[in-house]
Design a protein that fits this description.
homodimer, 515 residues, alpha/beta, six-stranded antiparallel beta sheet
Chain lengths: 515, 515
């Protein structure tokens, strides 16, 4: 009997009809059943007469399946069974929401350290390999990227492939693509003119989608969540102007194809409010559609440009934020946590780099500071890098040049030592932000006052008061978040004054001794 | 005939009665008259039987005066005259308000670069001399300090002198002062208990007030505004609990004594909201009192702790601010300018240093950045320094150790080159704050679009677009606000891309060529 691991992918392939438009004209489905769950899964057409169903089992045990649909006159091996064994030690299941925190399904903490490479899968293959190599050695456990190509400053080369075939049977003639290289990107105030971009949106380019299969699976094996951006404004090929029917078919295809990857998140759009051809009711419709067709309830949100989405919508699992203020970024986490009672994920807090645009020219120090400010508040942050070059991480991937990624790895280690699944912001002095261990899995969201981290940000004190209960001993550690050191200061109780180095970006960790 | 300069001080001294309490029991006044003005001036008792009147003439010309009052049975030389000549080149008259800007009375721009040494006049005299020496070489043209001594962390040594005599004829027995060294400082939530501190508030210690005479005059000669803090909370001697009558007499004394110094500003209180023994109506009463008795209409405001004062009050000339948010300081200038339509003076934006308190441990870079953020918005800022030591500038004066003062001098030079009397914030890219020359004296408050400074703060772009009208030439300069350099980039018009060093704290200055 075929064996897979829990939260792995069981893929079924069957040959079927090729006449007409198989992406649209025929269906394939399967029902899966075990002692502990029962799911109906929609498959997809993968070209060359092959129809596929991908299923992610949520439990161990023996599963049976039954394939149905009109994709074939007679379905070959319509039923079968397979065995689901324990998850590998590195496989903790999909990321889910617990209160305002994220965690893996098996209860393991997930301290999200994100990054962004919008169009990395549209770059030359050797560059994609380099990106994977960089990610492998990094702290990043989430990456945001687009399923549609990107046209924008520094992104004007032809993408590796287009997501749809050309209409009229012309397929993927790249010459034809090039003849339409008119800049069709839409910006606020720009008039939308009907324009035939020549794509047949009912025919996904399976070559490209197979590449995404591979990349998502590779990320999964590296323990990296794939935050798939389904739509975005930076386009000259018309994908930002696809109509209702085309979008529905595309979203169905994507959910059928990638839903079984445990590391998938759905980002309905990057900067949804800059996609001028779509209205609020469109986003609602597409969000609800994904919510209704995704059998696994993957993480799902919408990322803003200037105006944050209404994250209270029931289909939204978390706040996916871009800062909307120039000065305040992750310092505003409290506000969103209070307003929405959902995890707060700062997917854009400006990028480390030196581009001419303000969103892409902050220092490594500022990037790291924003991460710590967010982390202490129980929010999650995303990195990006924009040093002026031919290849820029933020969109192309490649190699990292900045100084923040190493520090984010250090932050990741510090967070990894926190008991429970995350931090809850607590009361502190006015010049510190204090995160207490909290959100213990299985114990609800209680805050644990025996474990706290006091982050001092831009302040540079030469000493500091540490006031503790008289009757309990605490281990006090000095953390240099920039130089990545932890200096134990010993056990303390009552009133203490500790010496500090008079540098910025320090933190004090206070843990009940012996815990 | 005696000659003084315009905006100088004409001092008249007359002997008078010494029986009873001359500070309280007798009056001295004088009327001054010239072709251009007429003023009635109240004098004050200076001890040893000497009564004084100080007058600052606002115009050139011949003045006559007439002394009156019951201070003497027979007034010696009750009338006289003197001549007022032109002001020295360094004397531009008192600072006044024009719109939301400050300027000197003669129309000269006043780009306020403040500093704070709360208790410098209560320090040993040689330290006071050192403070003056430091100020002489600095960019500071305003200094905030208290007329009452200060008791607070790092301020626990006995002050040089007390502002009032001891009651019961015991005068200024310092032994007696020491026996009352109980910490009487009040903090929010602390109960106010009636307590006799043993001072006779009707008897100012003229020795101390003579020292203030000297210091204010020395500052005046150095072109430095003396922002006199009249009341404050950090006290153990009871001055923060003085009653209505005592306060009135004190304020009358101070205004009579110092009103004629053109460089005087009245800061009714430092952190008024921490002075627990005073209620909102007290502040209103004292503010209106000063407003009504000050013959010159000196700058007058109230400085906040946590809650800003209602600067719309008619007796308030300007907003005297301490930041009320940990992250945002001078970035909030726009809000106050819009709300109050009065000059915005950020007297506390945290201090450069390394104290354990968050208000006293920012970097020099951050201090300078806050100054530039404020300046570009047409606001004014104050510096302070708190490096942990026996002598700390913020309260004691002495010598500066920090890196910001030199950069503030550079800022002062840059501002000194701006045409008109100040900057007005204009529209800019979202990652810059743009100050346009504005507030031209005599031309109202128009903004001059031919002269702008674009400050990029924490951003570190490697290049930048400079988009100018096609038909006009502009001189473009790159300003490194930290390294204090101005690099001319030549004349430009139309669309340009300029190379930037990829460092923080840069500004671009754009001036119409030939202007």
């Amino acid at each position: 009997m075929q064996k897979i691991e829990r939260w792995g992918v069981l893929e079924l392939s069957r040959l079927g009809k090729t006449d007409g438009n198989p992406f649209k004209d025929y269906t394939i489905k399967a029902s899966f059943r075990s002692d502990r769950e029962e799911k109906s899964i929609t498959g997809f057409y993968d070209g060359d007469g092959v129809y596929k169903i991908r299923f992610m089992p949520s439990y161990e045990g023996v599963y049976t399946y039954h394939i149905s649909g009109n994709f074939a006159h007679s379905i070959e091996e319509p039923t079968g069974s397979f065995e689901v064994g324990p998850a590998d030690s590195e496989n903790h299941g999909p990321v889910v929401v617990e209160g305002t925190h994220l965690r893996y399904t098996d209860g393991t903490a997930y301290h999200s350290i994100g990054t962004t490479c919008y169009a990395w899968v549209f770059q030359p293959l050797n560059l994609q390999e380099r990106t994977l190599e960089t990610l492998r050695g990094s702290a990043f456990n989430k990456i945001r990227f687009c399923l549609f190509p990107k046209f924008y400053d520094y992104n004007k080369k032809e993408p590796l492939a287009m997501p749809f075939e050309r209409g009229n049977g012309e397929g993927l003639d790249s010459e034809l693509v090039k003849t339409n290289e008119k800049d069709r990107m839409l910006f606020p105030g720009q008039k939308i003119e009907p324009y035939d971009f020549g794509f047949d949106y009912t025919r996904p380019n399976v070559e490209l989608f197979r590449l995404f299969d591979k990349r998502i699976a590779q990320l999964r094996e590296m323990g990296i969540e794939a935050d798939l951006i389904l739509m975005h404004p930076y386009d000259k090929w018309g994908m930002n102007q696809m109509g209702r029917e085309a979008c529905e078919q595309y979203l169905n295809y994507v959910v059928s194809r990638y839903g079984a990857y445990r590391n998938v998140w759905w980002s309905l759009a990057n900067e949804y409010d800059f996609v001028l051809a779509k209205k609020p009711e469109d986003w609602e419709h597409y969000g609800e559609l994904i919510f209704s067709i995704d059998p696994y309830g993957h993480m799902l949100s919408v990322h803003n440009g200037l105006k944050t989405y209404d994250f209270s919508r029931p289909w939204i699992t978390h706040c996916s934020l871009q800062r909307t203020d120039f000065y305040l970024t992750t310092e505003s986490s409290d506000r969103y946590l209070e307003q929405y009672h959902k995890p707060v994920v700062w997917d854009e807090i400006c990028y480390e780099g030196n581009l001419e645009m303000g969103w892409g020219n902050i220092t490594a120090q500022e990037m790291v500071r924003r991460f710590w400010e967010g982390a202490m508040r129980g929010a999650y942050c995303g990195h990006g890098e924009t040093y002026l070059d031919e290849v820029i991480w933020w969109s192309h991937g490649g190699t990292l040049k900045g100084e923040s990624p190493e520090r984010l790895k250090f932050l990741s280690q510090i967070l990894g030592e926190v008991p429970g699944i995350g931090l809850n912001k607590g009361e502190g002095a006015f010049d510190e932000v204090v995160g207490y261990a909290g959100g213990h899995s299985g114990e609800g969201m209680e805050t644990c006052y025996d474990y706290s981290i006091h982050y001092l940000g831009v302040c540079q004190p030469a000493k500091r008061r540490v006031i503790l209960p008289e009757d309990t001993k605490y281990q006090v550690d000095l953390i240099d978040t920039w130089n990545m050191t932890v200096t134990p200061l010993g056990e303390m109780s009552g009133f203490n004054i500790i010496q500090m180095p008079g540098r910025q970006y320090m933190a004090i960790r206070i843990c009940k001794a012996g815990e």
